[in-house]
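QA checklist item 7 of 12: single-chain prediction sanity check.
[x] sequence parsed
[x] length recorded as 216
[x] structure emitted
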Amino acid sequence: MRGRKGGDVEAGGDRSVAAGGNIERVTTGDHVTQVEHATLLPPEALSAASATHPLVNVPRRSAHFVGRREELERLDEGFAAGSDLLVICGLGGVGKSTLAARWAESRTESRAESRTGEGAQPPALVWWITAESRADLDAGLAGLGAALQPALIDVLPPEALRERALQWLSGHDDWLLVLDNVSAPEDLAPLLDRVRRGRILVTPGRPAAGTASPGS
């Protein structure tokens, strides 16, 4: 087989095909196939995503966070009691996102403590998504897929990266998603239908016209 920039690659076995770089012509023995566009996928594209090290994406919103210990403890207690989805309710402007960011940061801080033998093992993945719309949620999940498999960032389209993220989330327990500023609860339905493991923390935003905020 000859590539567009010249040079041959060899394939062993009857009618086998080898790929190297941009493909222009493929010969199998019986046929010659003209290829207009082809993408050579790295090995990572054929394997499941894996998080072998902590992945953390939390905005630094709580540098001057003080107080609200009771609210933080209630989040701890809610998840400890077995809940896998919690919603922080309150009027706009009371600091729901800041509270969520501080609590999520505490999960990453407890990982450092666990390395010294103190505290419970925190999640391997803590990921923040600003989910004001379905498109925002999909983009955030695509970003997670890219973080799980960086080699695929310039190879797979956002839809495929999003699918990679959903597959990983549905196959693991050790993670926390924060979905911030959710304005339409129905935007979360495709995610919740696919993913029934791990933990999700939601902060409602201003509801779109004709919708109710999460938890109402």
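[x] summary fact logged: The domain at 46-204 is CATH 3.40.50.300 (Rossmann fold).
[ ] second reviewer sign-off
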